[in-house]
What we know:
Residues 63-368 form the DUS-like FMN-binding domain. GO terms for molecular function: flavin adenine dinucleotide binding; RNA binding; tRNA dihydrouridine synthase activity. Helix content is 35%, strand content 14%. The two termini are 27 Å apart. α1 crosses α11 (306-323), α4 (126-138) runs parallel beside α6 (169-184) and α6 runs parallel beside α7 (205-214). The chain has two domains: 52-302, Aldolase class I (TIM Barrel), CATH 3.20.20; 306-377. It is α/β, with parallel strands linked by helices and 426 residues long. A hairpin with a 4-residue loop joins β1 and β2.
Amino acid sequence: MTYKTTMEGxxxxxxxxxxxxxxxxxxxxxxxxxxxxxTSAAEPxxxxxxxxxxxxxxxPVVLSPMAGVTNWPFRVICEEYGPDGLYxxxxxxxxxxxxxxxxxxxxxxxxxxxxxxxxxxxGVNPAIVEQAARIVVDENMADHVxxxxxxxxPKVTRRGGGSALPWKTDLFREIxxxxxxxxxxxxxxxTAKIRVGIDHEHETFLEAGHIxxxxxxxxxxxxxxxxxxYYGGHSDWSRIGELVEALNxxxxxxxxxxxxDDALEMVRETGCAGVAIGRGCQGRPWLFADIRHAFAxxxxxVDPTLGDVCRVIMRHAQLLTEFYDGDERMAVHDLRxxxxxxxxxxxxxxxxxxxxMECESLADVEREIxxxxxxxxxxxxxxxxxxxxxxxAKKVHLPxxxxxxxxxxxxxxxxxxxxxxxxxxx
Length: 426
């Protein structure tokens, strides 16, 4: 494949795809580790309940939807630790739901214990997203619908979805209009998840926030990075503060909340109505307990032993087995990535980690757990520290000519909304 370089610094591929080629790493400071030490005591943080239509959220803390992570077993564990917040299901592809894809339908399931059934939809075609919303309403699948306009993954953005979509204001507005209209009939609040923009030359968050507010969204969540920054560096919380100042609806802040003190600091710094937790809770669902205590003004924090962590692992394995209708093999395979996160920082050795990755049943997992020292303390060096992909960025892949205009042409819509069987699969 060959590329040509445009004057704007873009590489345009012969496959009719636009690829942004620019430095992606942010130079934002991490306020916990890079900022100068504060000499005076921090101002106390107060946070109030948030009302989303008919839904009261007593403590506005959100488990952000994460693909392959926030199915109902993980949500249940997080909610058991945490406050009465929003624990959002992983992203459901609208076309897959309309096609009655079995995996999409499985991901729409909620446990009886979940207090608020929050479901996130993703799509590019307004008509298909509307159909998916209609299914959610007619089949009573959820109490709250979130729309994904924040995903930075290339396979999503190259089709104009996720964080690429707000650049096309007509498409962004139409999707929200249609979903709000359908969900409004059932008094189901709709919210939107966005990023700062495609890159800092193509920011969209303020305009997107206003459109979401105008079209009836009950709240907006801002991940304070651009698509180009992906998960690199530290998110720029000042942009959350800008959006708070610009809107009248609640704004939830997202990005680099690794511990309870980060949640407090984000609210203190930005004035956001609540916080959304993503990678910070991977392998640490008790982070929600820490945040619950922090917002209550308490110093209590969870300090688990390896034995405590192993009990969470086994409970997670059992819930996943139920999720997969008794299929232990599928459950344990799903659990593997979580085990890597649960054990992160513990000096258990490579052979132990390898053995867990080879487990095929609940008995296998239980057997490996018996080889661990239950008295081992959670390591200080990883407490409240970044997890997952923290220094990682990608080129931004967009539909060909995507940045030429802020609205879609007839030809672009025909290309975007064509019959794409991949869009109905997982």
